Amino acid sequence: MTADVIVKERPILFSGEMVRAILDGRKTQTRRIIKKQPLCNGHLIRGFEYLEGDRLWVKEALYASLQSCGETGYYLAKYVADGKFACMENVPVAWQWKRTYQPGMFMPRWASRITLGITGVRVERLQEITPANCKAEGIFITHPEKPTIDEALHHMRLYRDAFTELWDSLNAKRGYPWDSNPWVWVIEFKRITP
After folding, report:
1. Is the entire prediction scored with pTM above 0.90?
2. Residue range 85-132, pLDDT digits in tens
């Protein structure tokens, strides 16, 4: 007798830049603040918010748009990240646009075009991130094909600097700047094709 596995789905908000990185296949990790920061070396973390095997549906900014879409549907949304239209057929009748621009935080589930399967979860301090993890976070830096050791070290620093800048742009105002080195969930994922 096998137990049924319940897969949970939860929303996750991404900026336009990070949505494009997911669509390009460059982003396979995200770091999220642990809501109740542990008191001592991560030992007091209770209850995992994210579990391997669960799914995340991506919330992103939209523009209202109404155009025909084939014979049976119509466009109700245009994604801000890349300007592509969403062809919707079974839109809830009660849905009303509150404004022409809809911030990602208000995106309904039916409008989400990206679903991610969680492949791994761990807890670490923010500043433990490696250059390879920065790359998996969607950071893109061009570098020479055959760099010298000095050039390679320089580019490793560039990845970390770019991630630090991105992190602060999203989290410093919320009270979690890079320098505070908070505990974070490191969520690894793969995009699930519908």
Report:
1. no
2. 877 665 655 566 666 888 999 888 888 999 999 999 999 999 999 999
Contact 100, 92 (CB under 8 A): no
Neighbours of 176 (CB within 10 A): 20
All structural domains of the chain, each given as residue ranges with its CATH number in brackets, are 9-60+112-192 (2.30.130.30), 61-104 (no CATH)
**pLDDT for residue 47:** 57
- Output the six-digit token pair for 158: 């560039």
Residue from 11, 92, 91, 16 nearest 61 by CA: 16
* Residue 32 burial class via C-beta count within 10 angstroms: exposed 0-12, middle 13-18, buried 19 and up: middle
